[in-house]
Amino acid sequence: MNNSKRINVALLCGGKSGEHEVSLLSARNVYDSLDKTKYNVVIVGIDKMGRWFPISENSLIEKSGGMNEIASDKGVTSVSIIPSSADLQFSDMGNGHTPFDVVIPILHGPYGEDGSVQGLLKLANIPYVGAGVLGSAVGMDKDVMKRLLRDAGLPIGKFVTLYKHRKSLSYVRITKKLGSPIFIKPANLGSSVGVSRVDTKKEYEKAVAEAFKYDTKIIIEEYIDGREIECAILGNEEPVASIPGEIATNKSHHAFYSYEAKYLDEQGADLIIPASLTKKQTRAVQDLAVKVFTTLCCEGMARVDFFFRENSTFVVNEINTIPGFTSMSMYPKLWEASGISNEKLIDTLIQLAIKRFKVEQKLVTK
């Protein structure tokens, strides 16, 4: 670990997923929240080809402001990861090696939130913020996630899983099992990319084809009529839940809380914090959020999303192990409303990463 006064932090952003541009928005807010008197911060961008390279603060601001993808400038050297017995080093190919104390992966979706980067960092022997390999993988895969939650006895909606290499089920069979309307999603993606609401057979075929563009496995979920409630989770062995918030989608603009409603339309939805719940309901959803987090073997941070039905029951929708950190995102807003500023939140996440790393270093591996 670095012994100097300031902690060396590598902030990973961009990535190969369909949420590349959202990652840049989140990374910009995380960068702004990092206390530069405590941290030496290097921004590492990953383009849509999967290439790593350093980017400047100005470049991050420019790209995130216009929702553009990042690309390396002419003459900019690439970045590689060098595993070592003590720490992770980024090689700039020409100027030696720079060791880092902790990595903050702000990579939404596949190749960042699914355990792939977490596995790479684990092999490189470096602390990193957020869930580990297992928690990241099962949190990303909505099919596996729902099966684990179901087996743990936690309330989820009905769903069907389809595979690209297998014969698809007909619209009639699906709606007989799930009712109508239904929602069709890629199993391994977030932020509503590739998600469709389906009310007719014609829409069904189109939505299945769209979801299969992003994954070889898709899930089809029943429509749940309920308010959308979200809780933020923070911690490792003893995680805690924030006060819950509510997403009130502007139905005159969007049929559901879509990608556009989340990130592109400032009037797409209202974030109501705290959610209008009784004390008993608040405690119930907080307890349930923590159970989801621990059931899925998560650590560090997550946002757990629910539907709240009129009969006062909560249904788990999904978990996000690297939730959005944009100016419109619920995760940082929930903690701010719970008394933890963005700066303190990032500090805590870094300390949780370092603490977990120290525990793991004491394990016998040979």
Unreliable segments of 5+ consecutive residues: none
Structural class: alpha+beta
Shape: globular
Whole-number radius of gyration? 20 Å
How many helices does DSSP assign?
11
Q: What is the string of helix and strand elements?
A: EHEEHEEEEHHHEHEEHEEEEHEHEEHH
What does the secondary structure layout of this molecule look like, with pairings?
Blueprint: E1 7-14, H1 20-33, E2 39-46, E3 52-55, H2 57-65, E4 80-82, E5 88-91, E6 97-100, E7 102-106, H3 116-123, H4 133-140, H5 142-151, E8 159-163, H6 171-178, E9 182-186, E10 196-198, H7 201-211, E11 217-222, E12 227-235, E13 240-241, E14 245-249, H8 259-264, E15 269-272, H9 279-295, E16 300-308, E17 314-320, H10 330-337, H11 342-361
Parallel strand pairs: 1-2, 1-7
Antiparallel strand pairs: 2-3, 4-5, 5-6, 8-11, 9-10, 9-11, 12-13, 12-14, 12-16, 14-15, 16-17
Helix pairs in contact: 1-2
Description:
It is a single chain. The protein has 366 residues and is of the alpha+beta class. It is built from eleven helices and 17 strands. Strands 12, 13, 14, 15, 16 and 17 form a six-stranded antiparallel β-sheet that branches. Helix 1 (20-33) links the parallel strand 1 and strand 2. Helix 1 (20-33) packs across helix 2. The longest helix has 20 residues, at 342-361. The radius of gyration is 20 Å and the shape is globular. The two termini are 22 Å apart.
